[in-house]
Design brief:
The longest helix of chain A has 18 residues. Chain A has 17 helices and ten strands. The chains are: A alpha/beta (331), B mainly alpha (295). At the A-B interface, helix 9 of A face helix 2, helix 7 and helix 12 of B.
Chain lengths: 331, 295
């Protein structure tokens, strides 16, 4: 690292001050405490350090603590995978006031919450294109406790999405169509239910989200709802609330994930911001990496190296040839 | 010198391969036997489901009368019957009647199965020191291993729902009844056994007419402990999606609903106290009864 900086410094003198080391320097970056964000942060760190000559320090934390610190103190400077839905009002306020900027409004594609079925179910029943089609066929998804009914596995008790699934269950009139809403009790119960169904090739319909290793591992497929999203107003004031009387059929709200940077970094970051904007992981690639992390029990750092070694096709499109060469050399 | 400062542990790769190999063979096991195991438990699922529907489907006044009668039959104590009825009414009034019935169904079936498995196992243990030395450590494991550890394999085999929840409860709740049956039989006075031998009792006669009656207080203490532990496991079972009071507690914990948590938690306590007092008083009456005979 030191050596690289030194080389860069010499080059700077030689070339009359156009190289990046001068501009880069120390960067603090958030490493959120879930797998995909760990990978993302460590890949950024490696590329920025080896390719751009920065000095990156990762700061570990959760969504709200990192956001609070970034908005309040300007530290860390970059949050790679900031999930916006949970803190939307705060994010909007900070962005309107110009304290934070979203340099990338979708660092991972195909992410979000919704209803999923296994790939083999989708392959065996191509006619089940949307939720509207599936709910007509409860007999394909028999419940263990009452095989005459179809089982729809909702959210574990007490999660925010529990109420939403309950309302959707009602909005799609699923009880009358012969479905039961199964509460998996816990994240372990939900994961286990998916794993069991897949190991035994049983049909399964339920709630989950991506990017996650379980979606990647079992190549679960999101099911489009077949209806339009009924709007934020309805979603926030009705679907997420108990006792709402005006529930309508709606698709799941889109999850938004931003790469946020502080205003200061926006001004001074230069081409780092270009890198952050270009850095987009296709959903399946991210899921594959998460499966790798889960299977090999790999840390974010190990997974980052693995990603850089094996998915050159993905990451070399994010950077210039010059930077790509430097990163490859460092690997 | 590094041998003294660093523990000689497996390398990361070795350890990972080791874990992966075990996980892998467990998955092969599921592929081979998962369906068979699930079918084996089907009758249990049907019974449990039937019993649950029965409890929930019975109109509440009838249910209340049945419970009161059972408590009276067990305890012969008016104050306990009154206390039971009042607490049930309060629980129902606070909107927890149906969940209470789910929980009652699960604990009742779990207790019955524990008795069916536990008492014969206890008798077996009391007959042979070797069997005792084999079963005791197994019981130790069952009682102390964190429930979360075996929840995952149970879910992988049986999915989520009633049966996996029931099995998790039984694993935790069966040891006391096994231990105390064994202990009760072993504690029977050797003089009395000699007397039985002198009368020419066969070992079966000895077991059923001498040892079991005299061991009853201990066995009942075991049943009592089993019920308590089954109730304590209701929340853990709900991690596998078993509905009832436990799931509401879980919901309360996940969403920081303090009142909801306490309401359902205290409802579990109320059921526990009713079960406990009734079975204790019943046990005591049995003891009196046998004292009259043998006294």
């Amino acid at each position: 690292m030191k050596k690289l900086l030194a080389t860069a410094a010499i080059a700077t003198i030689g070339m009359g001050g156009t190289a990046m080391a001068e501009e880069c320097g120390d960067i603090t970056m958030a490493e959120f405490n879930w797998a995909s964000a760990e990978l993302l942060a460590n890949v950024d760190k490696f590329i920025l350090e080896e390719g751009y000559g920065c000095d990156v320090e990762l700061i570990v934390g959760g969504t709200s603590s990192i956001f609070a610190s970034m908005d309040g103190k300007g530290e860390p400077m970059i949050a790679g995978e900031q999930w916006v839905n949970g803190v939307r009002e705060l994010v909007d306020a900070a962005m309107d006031a110009g304290r934070l900027h979203a340099v990338n409004r979708g660092p991972i594609t195909g992410l979000g919450e919704g209803w999923w079925i296994p790939a083999y179910t989708a392959a065996a029943h191509p006619e089940l294109e949307t939720v509207l089609d599936i709910i007509e066929h409860p007999e394909l998804f028999p419940s263990a406790e009452d095989p005459s009914k179809g089982a729809f596995v909702g959210c574990p008790a007490g999660w925010g999405c529990q109420q939403i699934n309950l309302n959707l269950f009602e909005a799609f009139d699923m009880e009358a169509k012969g479905w039961v809403l199964v509460d998996p009790g816990s994240a372990a119960g939900l994961d286990g239910a998916i794993a069991k169904a897949n190991e035994r090739e049983e049909n399964w319909l339920g709630y989950y989200w991506s990017p996650t290793s379980i979606i990647g591992k079992y190549s679960m497929q999101p099911v489009p709802f077949g209806v339009e999203y009924a709007g934020d107003e309805h979603w926030n004031n009705c679907m997420s609330k108990p006792d709402c009387t005006e529930i309508q059929q709606t698709a799941w709200t889109k999850s938004e994930v931003f790469t946020l940077v502080t205003d200061e970094f926006m001004q001074s970051g230069g081409e780092i911001n270009d890198y952050l904007a270009a850095r987009i992981y296709p959903g399946p690639v991210m899921n594959e990496m998460l499966v790798y992390m889960a299977d090999e029990q790999a840390s974010g750092e190990d997974a980052a190296i693995e990603f850089l070694l094996t998915r050159e096709d993905v990451w070399t499109t994010w950077v210039s040839e010059d930077v790509a060469a430097k990163v490859k050399a460092a690997l | 010198m590094s041998l003294f400062t660093e523990f000689p542990e497996m390398t990361r790769t070795e350890l990972r391969d080791f874990k992966k190999a075990i996980d892998g063979s467990f998955k092969d096991f599921i592929h081979a036997y998962g369906e068979g195991i699930e079918n084996f438990f089907k009758p249990l699922l049907h019974f449990l489901k039937w019993f649950e529907d029965l409890l929930v489907g019975t109109p509440w006044p009838i249910m209340l009368i049945i419970i009161a009668l059972l408590v009276w039959a067990g305890s012969r104590s008016w104050s306990l019957v009154l206390g039971t009825v009042i607490s049930m009414l309060v629980i129902g009034y606070l909107g927890m009647w149906e969940n209470m019935m789910f929980t009652l169904a699960l604990t009742t079936v779990a207790t019955l199965i524990c008795i069916i498995i536990g008492i014969p196992l206890g008798i077996l243990m009391s007959k042979s020191d070797r069997i005792q030395s084999i079963i005791t450590p197994v019981l130790d494991v069952m009682q102390t291993i964190p429930a979360f550890v075996y929840l995952i394999p149970i879910v992988m085999i049986l999915g989520i729902g009633l049966v996996p929840g029931l099995i998790a409860v039984i694993i935790y709740a069966v040891p006391p009844i096994v231990r105390l049956t064994n202990l009760g039989i072993r504690l029977v006075d050797t003089d009395i056994l000699e007397a039985a031998d002198a009368f020419g009792a066969s070992s079966r006669q000895k077991l059923w007419t001498v040892q079991m009656p005299l061991a009853l207080p201990n066995i009942f203490a075991g049943v009592n402990q089993t019920i308590m532990m089954a109730l304590a496991m209701v929340v853990v079972a709900s991690l596998l999606g078993v509905h009832g009071l436990g799931l509401e507690v879980l919901k309360a914990v996940n969403s920081q609903y303090i009142t909801l948590g306490f309401m359902n938690g205290l409802a579990i306590v109320a059921i526990a106290i009713v079960f406990d007092r009734t079975s204790q008083k019943f046990g005591k009456r049995l003891q009196k009864h046998s004292e009259v005979i043998h006294g």
